[in-house]
């Protein structure tokens, strides 16, 4: 019979559970996988499978001291680190959703919204289109494999141990919100500027000839031109996605650093 002691059992448990909490929280917070479309059991099974595969190459975590306060601190840190990594990636996807919202409002499609099955909220159709296109491009460029590599490297940069919470750059996470709005504005600026010129032209025509009902033809014309401008701007969508994705991965890699002492 196998002679397994309590200390050895605790070591095996802590070796698997501490990385599992970080990986599971990352999968729960990241886009595509951590959505309502993926059942909870599938996410849990994927987290277990990833932990079992990555466990041989991860640093050996400390042995858990039962249900002590230190163990709870370790668990909280792993959940926080994984959630921050997944949340920062989620911000990158919301850049295109916000950019589509700005373009749709300018072209008169702000009222055309649909229920997003991923997040369970109403989203403008154009923003939903950009969001789906971004997810497909992210998967086609093996972005999910890059994120798995980032999570794996996080165990080398910040191993499982009781460390100071200042090792996590919470301010950079907060500033990522400003980066989301600035990126959305830069992405939608060409289309918004073109539609603004069109609306300005109709305003001048209305001022020059008040007897003409310019708004009767201005609204459908602006909508058609907005769709045309959106179609033309899709040719540069790949370049915008590469720049934003490269910046997002750089932000994610800089969120965690090793503190001195």
Automatic annotation (TrEMBL):
Superkingdom in the source lineage: Bacteria
Keyword terms, alphabetized: Bacterial flagellum, Cell membrane, Cell projection, Cilium, Flagellum, Membrane, Transmembrane, Transmembrane helix
UniProt-listed InterPro entries: FliR (IPR006303), T3SS_IM_R (IPR002010)
Topological category with respect to the lipid bilayer: Multi-pass membrane protein
The keyword RNA-binding is annotated on this UniProt entry: no
TM ranges: 12-30, 42-60, 72-97, 118-141, 179-202, 214-234
Keyword flag Transmembrane helix: yes
Gene Ontology biological process terms from the UniProt entry: bacterial-type flagellum assembly; protein targeting
Subcellular location: Cell membrane; Bacterial flagellum basal body
GO CC term, one of those recorded: bacterial-type flagellum basal body
Similarity-based family: Belongs to the FliR/MopE/SpaR family.
Function (record text): Role in flagellar biosynthesis.
Family annotation (PANTHER family): FLAGELLAR BIOSYNTHETIC PROTEIN FLIR (PTHR30065:SF8)
Name assigned to this protein: Flagellar biosynthetic protein FliR
Source organism of the structure: Neptunomonas japonica JAMM 1380
Gene that this polypeptide is encoded by: fliR
